[in-house]
Amino acid sequence: MKARNNTHTNRILSLACAVVMLCTSMLQILAGAVPVHAAGTGGIKGNHLPAGYVTEEQMKLANPWTEINEGPLYNVMRKAQSGQRVNIAFIGGSITKGTMSTGTRDAGMSKKLPYVEYVIDWWYKKFPKADLYFVNAGISATDSYLGVHRVQKDVLDKKPDLVFVEFAVNDKKTAHHKQSYENLIRKILAADSKPAVMLLFMAKLNGWSCEVQQAQIGQHYKLPMLSYGSVMKDMINNGIYTMEELSGDAIHPSAVGSAIAGEIIVRYLDKLEAKSMGEVSYKKTPSQYITSKKYDGAKVLSCKNISIQRMGTFEATSKSRTFQNNLTSSSGNGDLTFQVTAKSIGILFAQQINGRGGQFDVYVDGKKTAQIDADNTGGRHTKPGAVPCYSSKTKKTHTVRIVRSGRSSGQALTIYAVLVS
C-alpha cells in the first residue's frame, strides 16, 4: 500500500515539475530572453549582435588591406561547422579585458557589451553545434612587451584555434614595441595548435594608435586586420557621432563605440563564413623577420623562481592577484640582488597612484642598464609597468641589482615578476 502511495506521489511531483518548467519557458519566450546553450560551453547564443552602426563604405575603411591570407580563418570556421571543439582567445589591454567608458548616447542602449562579447555571441549564433571555448587574456594597461612574455601561459597553453590581438593603444611607436609586437605574432603563429591570428587596431579618441607599424607587421605575415580607428575618425569627421558619444575618457570606447567595434568584426566574420566551406590550403609563415628574432622562449618568471642573493629592504608580498609572489620595498634603498639565466631581461612592476612610488636603478653585471619609475601619481589606478633591462644574443647567467635612485622622492617599489627570454 505504501509503495502504491509513493508511486502516486512521485507522479504528482513529476507532473508539477513539468508544469513549472513549461511555465518558466513560456515566461522566458514572452520576455524574449531564452538562453540557448552551445554544445559543451553554455551561454546565450547570438542574441546580442550589433547592427546598423557601420556603413558598407566604412567597412572598406576598416579593412583596406589586400593580399591577406584568410585561409586559416576558413579552417577554424569549417572546424566549428562540423561540431568540433574550437578554442578562441583574445589578448590585449583594458579594451579587450572589457573596460568601457560612458558616452553621452549610451543611456539609450538596451545592452552595453565590450567588443569581445559581441564576437563571442557571433560564434555561438553561427555554429550552434560547435564545442566552443573562449579565453579572455586582456590585462589593463599592458603592452605587447609583456604580452610576448605571458602569451604562452595565458593563451598558447590553452591550444587556441584562433587568437585576436589588440595592442594598438597601449604600445608606443618605438622600435622596441615594433619588435615585441612582431615577436608576439610569430610566437602565436608558431604555436603547436597552429592558430589563425586576427589583428584589431583600436584607437584613442584623438586618433592616436600604433596601427601603422602594427599593420606593417600584419601585412608581412598576411594576417586579417581591422581598423576601428579609421571608422571612428570617419564617423566624427562626418558628424555621425560626436567624440563624447564614442568615448567618455578619450581612451576607452563607450557602449556605442564598443558596439561599432563589435559590428566591424562580426560583419567581417560574416563575409568569411560565407566563403569558409571552400577548399583551403595552409600557408607557411614567412621565414624573414621585419625586426629580429629576440623574444623566442619569452616568459614571465615569478619572483619565487629567481635566485635571490640579497633581499635588502625588500620582502615577499602578495600585492597582485594577476601576478603572484611579489617583492616589495616600502622604505629604504631597496638594494635587491638576484641572478637569472637568460638572453633578455626585463622587470615587471607596479606603477602606484599613492605618491609613494619611487625611481629605482637597475644594474646588470655591475652596469646600469635601466631605471624603473614606479610613480603613477595622478593616474586612475595602480597598473603594471614593464621595462627592458638587458639584451644579448647569448643565454647566460646574469647578476641583477635594483637600488633606489639618489634623486628619488618616493621610496616604494613592488616587483611583480622578471621577464626573460
Offer a quick outline of the entry:
By secondary structure, the protein is an alpha/beta fold. Helix content is 32%, strand content 25%.
Kindly describe this structure.
With 421 residues, the protein is α/β, with parallel strands linked by helices. The strands form 2 sheets. Strands 6, 7, 8, 9, 10, 11, 12, 13 and 14 form a 9-stranded antiparallel sheet that branches. Strand 8 and strand 9 form a beta hairpin. Helix 2 crosses helix 9 and helix 5 runs parallel beside helix 11. It starts with a helix and ends with a strand.
Shape designation = globular
Measured by DSSP, the beta-strand proportion falls in 15-25%
Structural class: alpha/beta
Q: End-to-end distance, in Å?
A: 76 Å
H/E series, N to C?
HHHEHHEHEHEHEHHHEEEEEEEEE
Quaternary organisation: single chain
Spans of at least 5 consecutive residues with low confidence: 1-10, 12-45
Helix content: 25-40%
Total helices: the number is 11
The biggest sheet, with number of strands, parallel, antiparallel or mixed sense and barrel status, is: 9 strands, antiparallel
Q: How many strand units?
A: 14
Report mean pLDDT, rounded to a whole number.
Answer: 89
Topology (elements, then pairings):
Elements (H helix, E strand, L loop, with lengths): L1 H30 L24 H7 L8 H11 L3 E8 L1 H4 L17 H12 L4 E8 L5 H11 L7 E5 L8 H15 L6 E6 L9 H10 L4 E3 H10 L5 H4 L8 H21 L23 E4 L4 E4 L4 E3 L8 E4 L6 E16 L7 E6 L2 E7 L9 E22 L8 E8 L1
Parallel strand pairs: 1-2, 1-3, 3-4, 4-5
Antiparallel strand pairs: 6-14, 7-10, 8-9, 9-14, 10-13, 10-14, 11-12, 11-13
Helix pairs in contact: 2-9, 5-11, 6-7, 7-8
